[in-house]
Write a structure and sequence with these properties.
Blueprint: E1 4-11, E2 14-21, E3 24-28, E4 30-33, H1 45-50, E5 55-59, H2 60-65, H3 69-74, H4 78-82, E6 87-91, H5 94-99, E7 104-106, E8 111-114, E9 121-124, H6 126-136, E10 140-142, H7 154-176, E11 184-189, H8 195-208, E12 212-215, H9 224-234, E13 244-246, H10 252-260, E14 265-268, H11 270-276, E15 279-282, E16 285-288, H12 308-312, H13 315-324, H14 327-353, H15 357-370
Helix pairs in contact: 6-7, 7-8, 10-14, 10-15, 11-14, 13-14, 14-15
Amino acid sequence: MAFSFRLIASDGAARSGEMITPHGPVRTPAFMPVGTQATVKGLEPETVRATGTDILLGNTYHLMLRPGAERIAALGGLHRFMRWPHAILTDSGGFQVMSLAGLRKIEERCVIFRSHLDGAIFELSPERAVEIQSLLSSDIAMQLDECVKLPAPRAELERAMRLSLRWAERSRRTFQATPTGGRALFGIVQGGDDPALRVASARGLIDIGFEGYAIGGLAVGEPAEVMRRTIDETVPALPVDRPRYLMGVGTPEDVLEAVARGIDMFDCVIPTRNGRHGVAFTRFGPINLKNARHADDPRPLDEENAFPAARDYSRAYLHHLVKSGETLGAVLLSAINLAYYQQLTAGMHVAVDEQRFAEFRTQTTEAWARGDLPPR
């Protein structure tokens, strides 16, 4: 089916909705696990789906280098290659323009990279980024943009924003000239922490026209209050009838606060990365399983949790796995954390539908503030 977005309900600025993609529906608010290299680290696709995930994220830059977009296309596309028959969004490589700054040179025509794998030189242009994502057959493709680490001088923010707008126009032309199969292309709002630049970027992207709009260039070192203020200043400039995606965010609190400000989509490595480092996210807040106090605790993380791993394994056992460096500990905690993020976004979806988002927000933050239940 062709991509579409339906706004179901609003409660204040918070929204619930549904995206239709060629590989199935996606409920919003939606959290996308990061599957950079065609895998969510340590988890089988069936496990990722069991957490409640509708859509995950892949990366143009990394898949271009290894195993190669043309190879994935010849093998039937990214969905078949990684055995994930549901929706996929692919980032364009714009984040790597920032994160691999020492290995790239930015020109008007393209970004010239030196591969972090073998030192080979290659180019990534707006046109090539769209072509790669078409070869991958992702349901949602992103324009190539330049992401700038904050803080940065206003002149640098404006230069990168204007370049990203020109690249957005080239990305759109290429996308429109390519058989899309009902796929979507999102534009990316840039402009750092400058509200005037953000609004100018949003207006420029709307003039070009995209199926959805992302806010990029946040969660790159700025304080949380700067990120939230920037969302507040940017969201009113975005169309009501298109999905809004906050890239690279974030903690459960970040996600909750961004939904309160009108954001629909998120991605971040935090749930799986923290799981690999022994931290579980729960409705009581984060629990560090490395702490010795868990060594003799027979309780599960949350005996009322619908996700089996959070409900059935004892804290003592999870502590043992983490302290022993056993792979199973990282696997279980990664899955538990993804399930919590999906429970959080699903809870917000229902709360918006029932016009009780403010109550949900207060109850959730108060539960985090109280922290874990005392030991028995």
